[in-house]
Amino acid sequence: MEFLITLVSVFAIFSTFFPVSESNNNQFLLKDGLNPFDLSQFCDAINIYGDPGCDVPSSVSSKLLIKGGTVVNAHHKEVADVYIEDGIIAAVQPNIKVGDDIKVIDATGKFVMPGGIDPHTHLAMEFMGSETIDDFFSGQAAALAGGTTMHIDFVIPVNGSLSAGYEAYVKKAKRSCMDYGFHMAITKWNETVSEEMEIMVNEKGINSFKFFLAYKGSFMVNDELLMEGLKKCKSLGALAMVHAENGDAVFEGQKRMIELGITGPEGHALSRPPLLEGEATARAIRLASFVNTPLYVVHVMSIDAMEEVARARKSGQRVVGEPVVSGLLLNDSVLWDPDFHFAARYVMSPPIRAPGHGTALQAALATGLLQLVGTDHCTFNSTQKALGIGDFRKIPNGVNGMEERMHLVWDTMVASGQIPVTDYVRITSTECARIFNIYPRKGAILVGSDADIIIFNPNSSFKISSKSHHYRTDTNVYEGWRGKGKVEVTIAGGRVVWENDELKVIPGVGKYIEMPPFSYLFDGIDKADAKYLSSLRAPINRSTI
Ligand code: URP
Ligand code: ZN
Ligand code: ZN
User: What's the angle, vertex CA 297, arms to CA 282 and CA 143, rounded to 5?
Assistant: First the structure.
């Protein structure tokens, strides 16, 4: 097949109008002297599009050929070329020929894979008296540098209102430089919330709702609310998600630690042990079974929770278990570090567990007991974390991961020999797209899929440091980590956004991805309901004779 260029490539346009400068080792394509995180300055840099409001056309025409790489999908891999036109994959086959004027990237000896999809992030989230330091621009820019091309963030309702929460997040996401979707948290229950859930699903493209069984006094819901929510999710074809820790027991555990004089970050881990995660996971799974609706358990951090997910799946229940990178790789020794500031970086909930849990979670991921990897990216800088000096309950919970996930999962799972490269694509991208019903638009390198692609060099290496990461936050829980493999090129929506260790991101071009209800997880639910009803052998007709 022969493709000839007719338009000047978008890359030539960008390089003409946006001279490159370096700032603080974060290599964004910007005018000299611009701070990569000051968006008003950034808007100036894209005034070429004529809109001072930073609204860049999202459909800049682009043609691109990736040549000679091994194209990896979750179901198959083959050596092939990938041709992209206007943000969409137009052809996947060997020996595609194009004119000299089309940009060609040589991927010989490298893997060409779907960009990562991070199912679990918190950008610009108001939480524990602070707001996460990475917003939809800085978090996404960092993610693109690490090979993730889409993420799903959690909308937090405003005073329980889903509509107000949704509107707030639409504003927060305005400067997005990559595609994103929304989950929605449910923090209280009444008729309005129930009706708003319908609006979110039918009009706003949200197909998942998260229930926090922890964070007593703020986000936490009780079993009655959880059951109402599960029923509503089922009727809408929306996926119920749970943060599974017993919030009442955690509250008790926190009191116990303070009474014992344990006020530092180690008190965080001690106050919410794995059994409280196991209990809440088991409870949520049983209630979802009682309602007969699928359940997604976010940030599975312990063997206790993982075994509950595995047991339910073995019995045929539709339960998805999501480990996060921190839970797979880190262990709780850091929380006992004598330096408060160092230890506080690692405070997240559920806590990072004792050695042994992470390796068990890796094995569960490798064998399909757990299904996909998220990050729970939720960053607070050193000043914000310092709010908890003298009382671990006040340390804002959360760690980074959006930029590191693809590299760390490769190194830990593929380079170590635990999974093949096709499974890497499945757990970092495809499974997320399937669960949230956007496959094969996302999560695949197929004709017609969005051109969200990474070129990965397994023979190169990566190193992580807060000095070179692309976040706003000043620390990194993976500081100093090195490993095998490197995302050399990231293509998002058909545009090369990361190449030669240089980011070329534009605020405003990221698209909101609507996610329709009734994913494959709902297939057959009606049949199970019918089977249940016919098994009741009731009511018995007891007519009095
Ligand atoms: O510590 C965490 N996980 N922070 C983010 C909020 C949540 O529970 O997901
Ligand atoms: Zn959570
Ligand atoms: Zn989270």
Answer: 160
Q: Which ligand is nearest to the CA of 297?
A: 2
SS3 535: helix
pLDDT in tens, 7-58: 223 333 333 323 222 233 333 333 223 334 444 433 333 222 223 344 444 4
Least confident span in 15-24, 60-69, 474-483: 15-24
Q: Which among 163, 348, 344, 346 is positioned nearest to 245, based on CA atoms?
A: 348
Residue 127: name the closest of 398, 477, 352 by CA. 398
Pocket test for ligand 1, best of 376, 384, 395, 399 (most atoms within 8 A of CB): 376
The minimum-distance atom of ligand 1 relative to the CA of 219 is 8
Cβ pair 96, 83 in contact under 8 A: yes
Reference 355, options 338, 332, 337; nearest CA is 332
Could you check whether the bond before residue 539 is cis, i.e. omega within 30 degrees of 0?
yes
Residue 48, pLDDT score: 24
Facing residues of 111 across strands? 70, 456
Asked if 397 and 346 count as a contact pair (C-beta separation under 8 A), the reply is no
How many other CB atoms are there within 10 angstroms of residue 466's CB atom? Answer: 17
Q: What is the pLDDT of residue 13?
A: 33
What are the tens digits of pLDDT across the range 164-175?
Answer: 999 999 999 999
| Residue among 74, 120, 115 nearest 325 (CA) | 120
Structure-block tokens of residue 135: 């917003």
pLDDT tens digits, 67-113? 999 999 999 999 999 999 999 999 999 999 999 999 999 999 999 99
When pLDDT is averaged across residues 369-389 and rounded to a whole number, the result is 98
Relative to beta strand 130-131, strand 103-106 is unpaired
Please spell the DSSP secondary structure of 247-289, one letter per residue: HHHHHHHHHHHHHTT--STHHHHHHS-HHHHHHHHHHHHHHHH
Q: Where are the alpha helices (DSSP H) in 8-136?
A: 10-17, 39-45
- The alpha-helical segments, DSSP class H, found in 315-430 are 325-329, 340-344, 357-366, 382-385, 405-409, 421-425
Q: Where are the alpha helices (DSSP H) in 46-181?
A: 138-145, 162-172
Q: How far apart are CA 485 and CA 469, in angstroms?
A: 17
Cα–Cα distance measured from residue 108 to residue 29, given in angstroms and rounded to the nearest whole number = 27
Q: Which residue has the tokens 């278990």?
A: 321
- Ligand 3 mean position, distance from CA 108 (Å): 38
Cis peptide before 351 (omega within 30 of 0): no
C-alpha to C-alpha distances, 368 to 175, 362, 393, 525, nearest whole angstrom: 36, 10, 35, 22
| Distance in angstroms (rounded) separating the CA atoms of residues 452 and 433 | 12
Q: Ligand 2 mean position to 171 CA, how many Å?
A: 23
At position 315, the amino acid (one-letter code) is S
pLDDT at 16: 30
Q: Give the environment of ion ligand 2: residues with CB less than 5 A.
A: 243
pTM of the model: 0.91
Amino acid 62: pLDDT: 85
